[in-house]
Amino acid sequence: MSENTEPRPAAAPDPDRLPAAQATAVEPEPLEDDEAFVTSLDTAGGAHQPSAVPVSTQSGSLPGAPEEESVLRMIFTGNGIVTILAVVLALILGGLLIAMTDKVVGTTAGYLFARPSDFLTAVWSAATSSYVALFQGAVFNPRGAGVAGQFAPLMETLTIATPLITAGLGVALAFRAGLFNIGAQGQIIMAGILASWVGFALHLPMGLHLLLVLVAGVIGGAVWGGIVGVLKARTGAHEVIVTIMFNYIALYFLRYLLDTDLFQRPGADTPISPILDPSAAYPLLFGSQYRLHLGFLLAIAATVFVSWLLNRSTLGFEFRAIGANPKAALTAGINVSRATILVMTIAGGLAGLAGVAQVAGTEKVLTDGVAATYGFDAITVALLGRSSPWGTFAAGVLFGAFRAGAVQMQIQTGTPIDIVLVVQSLIVLFIAAPPLVRAIFGLNPRKKKAATAGKTKQAATTGGAA
Amino acid sequence: MKNSLRATFKRGSMAGVATAGAAALLLTGCGAAPEASTATNTASNYTGCIVSDSGGFDDQSFNQSSYEGLKKVTSELGLKMNEAESKTNNDFEPNLRAMVAAGCNLTVTVGFLLGDATKAQATANPDKHFAIIDFGYETPVANVKPIIYDTAQAAFLAGYLAAGTTKTGTVATFGGIKIPTVTIFMDGYADGVKYYNEKKGKNVKVLGWDKAKQDGSFTGDFEKQDKGKQFTQNFLDQGADIVMPVAGPVGKGAGAALQEAKAAGKDVKLIWVDSDGFLTAPDYKDIMLSSVMKQMGEAVETVVKQDKDGQFTNKPYVGTLANDGVQLAPFHDLDSQVPAELKSELDQIKKDIADGKLKVESAASPKA
């Protein structure tokens, strides 16, 4: 008899836990609902067979896994207000940093009490002039020559955003399937190697050549990502470790290749490949005054594709189900191994598209800096985009704007380009700590928080006792 | 109760912070306000600009020396200056475009990686002038002046010096990445040692570079100092006592390894490259034998002055021992460890190379 009553308190904490988790993530998203659905299903499964599994194992394993995951999930798919506030906060802190390192501010601070207005104006003008330059370099430059010149910065922003968007989509997609894909860097590199080789070594007619470059690049990224998927699915190797190591393998492989005659310019001894044939390059969208190329349209297409894949296709449903709870997905008859391999392959292919945008779009050559820092920025972009396709797109454009504007900011105001990197890093920091952002903006209703804290505590104790 | 307590505490801490802040301001902020002045020393509309490669202007290597050269000449002549640091290879083209848009008369670009981007912008803007450090074009571009160095000449002196000072009969060198601007140091160094052996009938060995095979030890990049340390320790284990790292900041790893060896009682020495390490890497003063210097700052100054006076040409500037574009740095603290005889021999070799009596050849030498 006692055996029959015991499972109830053990299962009870879970309904408690659910509202608690939702309260912390203020705005429940559709995805959260999925999770809730799956979790409750899981609990139900647990409650149905109380006599078969010892109670201690139940309370030990069941609540543990979803909880841990939910923290990561919260970071990745947190709510929109926090995301925007994180960007605002990072920009404000960046402004303060600009002011602090400004020379005029430094000198005026020396006679702050003699003439405080000087100091305040200096702080204000240092920060605002930098951000105005950033804006002029990223969106609209009123001093540009004609309308074409005035919108040149916007085109530049979209150009830089192109690889960020596609690589970011790869990271976001993998995350939706519960995989933390750090390997975009390596996937971009492998794509760059293959695409550039096809681009400079083969000489084919217009159209066909570019198509082959594109296919080669996407395959390069897809294979590099797919291997990680296979390792994860077959051997359980952790994808974070494997992708990081694969980044190094790709980089050193690239450096090795650039030291061979195969990838060096004939007669030269520098690690830089020949320039890609014109037939292998993406056509420019609006003429040679801008750098914006066909890759941007492909990035839009990729966003539409990922959006369809995740929200409309069976495969996407499987990805999301696995991301929410792999065990439940397995129980529901989803082939988790197959989906893991597939999602990593597609993610790799998307990063590969970024590699193609690099060699066939902007750089036109292969160097060991072909991936720049896009592979790692892609993680930030996916984070900021909350792993949704169009969110990632928007985040990619925002980061593209930062990058494009930084050039102008550096030249116009002498503000170090590092400030932009600091702002980017601060954004990640704030997104990873939603309670901090909410606390700063006073969005944490104290009473509610205390109540939920009490509840979880209670739940924990009951769970422990059981 | 708890809340109010916390609030008081918070208020207290805020007050504390405010006091501390005020105190800090009082201490720093009581200087007198300067009189309003509007005079600037911009005497000319000429703008000199510089775009770094991904190493940045604080790389203690060619970006830094070029940057300092431009800074010096622009402030001396009262010119305007624009600078753009590239964080990645992707920044080259946007930076160069922005420089052209900012109205730069002369834009200095640093390193072979910028070769293509510089050429593209120069061709698109024929009325603007460019200069590129450490890179020469196979077919000259009308408005780009290459600034290149026959570094092998000075490295030859360093090799001779190393061979003449080694106690173990073994010296070493290693590079960052196998590119001509690095291997040219190693070629000259190896040849200098060889020349010493021929002259003196000795058999000093060089580790880390085989000139005939054009192959040797490379750390793989210009960043990982621990690799430089590891390489140097290996060389020390193989009996070397003088090491010349040609790897920018990675050279600091070599310095650290040598200092450890010195602390352990070994007599070891370091040869720096690019700038006078005694001044730019003072941490290793006590083991710094000499440096193979490329005077990039001076070259940039010269080119800017020429361009401002309307004497720009696209003829490469080649730094040699003859025009002091490359030099062997003074021995500074280790002066006493270099025999007077060796010093006079070095002077003679320098003179012979400058006069063309002694030919120093490297596959990486600039073909001018």
Structure overview:
The complex is a heterodimer of chains A (466) and B (368). Chain A contains 23 helices and no strands. Chain A is mainly α and 466 residues long. Chain B is built from eleven helices and 14 strands. Chain B is globular, with a radius of gyration of 25 Å. The model of chain B is unreliable at 1-15 and 37-42 (pLDDT under 50). At the A-B interface, helix 9 and helix 20 of A face helix 1, strand 2 and helix 3 of B.
Give the helices and strands, then pairings:
The complex is a heterodimer of chains A (466) and B (368).
Chain A (H helix, E strand, L loop, with lengths): L1 H4 L1 H5 L1 H12 L5 H19 L6 H7 L2 H14 L2 H22 L1 H8 L5 H23 L7 H5 L1 H25 L7 H18 L6 H28 L3 H19 L36 H19 L1 H11 L1 H6 L4 H27 L11 H11 L4 H25 L4 H15 L1 H7 L5 H20 L1
Helix pairs in contact in A: 3-4, 3-23, 7-9, 7-21, 8-9, 9-20, 11-15, 11-16, 11-18, 11-19, 11-20, 12-13, 12-14, 12-18, 12-19, 13-14, 13-18, 15-16, 15-18, 15-20, 16-18, 19-20
Chain B lengths: L1 H27 L18 E5 L10 H16 L2 E5 L7 H10 L4 E5 L4 H10 L4 E5 L10 E6 L1 H15 L4 E6 L4 H21 L4 E3 L1 E2 L4 E2 L8 H13 L4 E5 L4 H13 L5 E6 L2 H4 L7 E7 L1 H13 L8 E3 L6 E3 L11 H16 L13
Helix pairs in contact in B: 2-10, 5-6, 5-11, 7-8
Query: Cα distance, first to last residue of chain A?
Result: 16 Å
Sheet with most strands of chain A? none
What's the pLDDT, averaged over the residues of chain B? 87
Oligomer: heterodimer
Alpha-carbon distance between the two ends of chain B? 84 Å
Most extensive interface: pair and counts?
A-B, 43 and 39 residues
Report the portion of residues of chain A in β strands.
under 5%
Number of strands of chain A: 0
Strand arrangement, major sheet of chain B: 2-1-3-4-5-13
